[in-house]
């Protein structure tokens, strides 16, 4: 990907005084002409690049920009490498591994040793516990469709259990809350939608290419998409004091302690089958105080569970 190459070129130039265009071309498997175009792009992005002619010529970041080279410390490099390794563990694509190696390429032996030490101090792994080859297969096919602007078709089961067949124009993969989502234009709904990958079945490429639309990619947009999957409901949840570590893990440290030591949490979540299962996952250590209709629904589900396992 071009953006990967541009970032890599910048990092190489930050670490080295001067690099020949031919060496960069060999490093990234492209032509010298492509490297020179990349240099122009970097220049336009605000990073001043100078090209020197002659036997000892090459490409370098302008001298006056040298102060900013200290931004990428050994810790910064370790963070980049750890993040790339974490992405590579979740997405089956050798390009992430190759990019990590390219980032390390210009470093000296002593720098590599320090980088290795720093990298082992922070490990990022975005893949789920256990192996999930089916999920990786979906991600591989979806990335192929996104890169080639190919429509896809699949059976989908939404949070309410409704089944439908969808044909969509895929635009992006989103990792949110330890779950993968597909962001796509749905031909059925004539709008952008988020589809949870675990609910996508019988995924297949369609022999139709599409013209890319203008895509709203702001972070707030994805938050609103998630909220719109169902009607949001304000919840008052009361946790036993022994559940403090669970509360902090799930809702953060902003908690309200009651006189008896129990913990009150106020949160707004979309109401659907996922919500009922999520609330029940806290077992007897949590009580829904409000709203009353959620209490009734959970009571009915709990009664059905009791009858199933007590018979």
UniProtKB/TrEMBL annotation:
SUPFAM superfamilies: Winged helix' DNA-binding domain. InterPro entries: CBASS_pafABC_assoc_protein, DeoR_HTH, HTH_11, PafC-like, WCX_dom, WH-like_DNA-bd_sf, WH_DNA-bd_sf, WYL_dom. Residues 2-57 form the HTH deoR-type domain. One of its GO terms (molecular function) is DNA-binding transcription factor activity. Keywords: Transcription, Transcription regulation. Transmembrane segments: none annotated. It comes from the Bacteria. PANTHER family: PROTEIN PAFC (PTHR34580:SF1), PTHR34580. This is YobV.
């Amino acid at each position: 990907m071009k953006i990967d190459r541009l970032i890599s070129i910048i990092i190489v130039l930050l670490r080295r005084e001067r690099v020949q265009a031919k060496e960069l071309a060999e490093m990234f498997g492209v032509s010298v002409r492509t490297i020179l175009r990349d240099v122009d792009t970097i220049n336009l992005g605000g990073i001043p690049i100078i090209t020197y002619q002659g036997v000892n010529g090459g490409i370098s970041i302008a001298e006056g920009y040298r102060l900013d080279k200290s931004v990428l410390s050994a810790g910064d490099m370790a963070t980049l490498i750890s993040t790339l390794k974490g992405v590579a563990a979740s997405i089956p694509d050798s390009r992430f591994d190759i990019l990590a190696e390219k980032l390390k390429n210009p470093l000296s032996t002593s720098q590599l040793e320090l980088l290795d030490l720093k990298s082992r101090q922070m490990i990022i792994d975005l893949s789920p516990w256990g192996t999930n080859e089916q999920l990786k297969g979906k991600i591989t096919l979806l990335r192929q469709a996104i890169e080639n602007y190919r429509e896809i078709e699949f059976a989908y089961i939404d949070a309410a259990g409704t089944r439908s067949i969808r044909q969509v124009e895929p635009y992006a993969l989103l990792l949110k809350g330890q779950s993968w989502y597909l962001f796509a234009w749905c031909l059925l709904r004539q709008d952008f939608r988020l589809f949870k990958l675990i609910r996508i079945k019988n995924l297949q490429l369609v022999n139709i290419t599409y013209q890319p639309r203008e895509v709203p990619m702001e972070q707030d947009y994805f938050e609103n998409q998630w909220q719109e999957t169902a009607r949001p409901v304000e919840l008052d949840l009361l946790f036993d004091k022994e559940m403090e570590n669970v509360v902090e893990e799930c809702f953060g440290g902003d908690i309200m302690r009651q006189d008896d030591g129990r913990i009150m949490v106020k949160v707004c979540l979309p109401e659907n089958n996922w919500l009922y299962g999520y609330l029940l996952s806290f077992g007897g250590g949590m009580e829904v105080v409000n709203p009353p209709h959620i209490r009734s629904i959970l009571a009915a589900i709990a009664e059905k569970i009791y009858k199933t396992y007590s018979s």
